[in-house]
Write a structure and sequence with these properties.
- The chain has 178 residues and is of the alpha+beta class.
- It folds into 2 domains: 100 residues; 59 residues, no CATH class.
- Helix content is 49%, strand content 18%.
- The chain contains 6 helices and 5 strands; from the N terminus they run E-E-H-E-E-E-H-H-H-H-H.
- Strands 3-4-5 form a 3-stranded antiparallel sheet. A two-stranded antiparallel ribbon has the order 1-2.
- Helix 1 crosses helix 2.
- The longest helix has 27 residues.
């Protein structure tokens, strides 16, 4: 198997499902990729079965699955398109990865990886907002020092400027009282 064309996702090389399919077809002209959807009122489930040589039922085979919520809007209110196609691609990508068609042993699809990265960024933004609010609610320097000590090193780096602004505010209030 040759090295597949990859993209960089958060520092890792990742082969898109389209590249995996292209390589699979080149190496296995008698191969089989079949998918089977199951649709409920709220979800879509795909099963993808891949057989390296359909004339030889004993050839290497893998099955991949995907499970997705049928949504009309995403968390930001944008229209969600191509849920069906996306879930099919995810299932095929998993099956191909199980057969060894992928980079760095990744099983997830590029879409899943990108969604996970967005989720991580959104989660971090929420945490920053919560921490910023908590710092803003500190009434004394001692209270802020205790709260600051409870934060992780990474979070401290992310909200350092907010802490410094609040510290100046509390120090100026302290000087005004004295």
């Amino acid at each position: 198997m040759k090295t597949l064309k990859t993209i960089n996702l958060s520092g890792s090389n990742y082969a898109k499902v389209s590249e995996r399919i292209k390589e699979f077809r080149a190496e296995n002209p008698n191969g089989l990729i079949e998918t089977e959807p199951t649709i409920t009122d709220t979800h879509i489930i795909f099963k993808a079965r891949i057989l390296k040589d359909k004339s030889n039922p004993a050839s290497a085979e893998a099955t991949g699955h995907s499970f997705g919520l049928i949504e009309r809007k995403d968390k930001k209110g944008n229209d969600v398109e191509k849920v069906f196609e996306k879930q099919e691609t995810i299932a095929v990508g998993r099956a191909l990865a199980l057969l060894g068609y992928g980079a760095d042993g990744e099983i997830a699809s590029s879409e899943e990886m990108e969604e996970f990265l967005v989720f991580q960024q959104e989660k971090q933004a929420e945490q920053i907002m919560e921490v910023s609010e908590a710092i803003g609610n500190c009434a004394t320097l001692d209270e802020m020092k205790k709260y600051w000590a409870s934060l992780s090193g990474e979070m401290k780096k992310l909200v350092e400027e907010i802490k410094e602004a609040k510290k100046k505010e509390l120090e100026s209030v302290k000087e005004t009282i004295v």
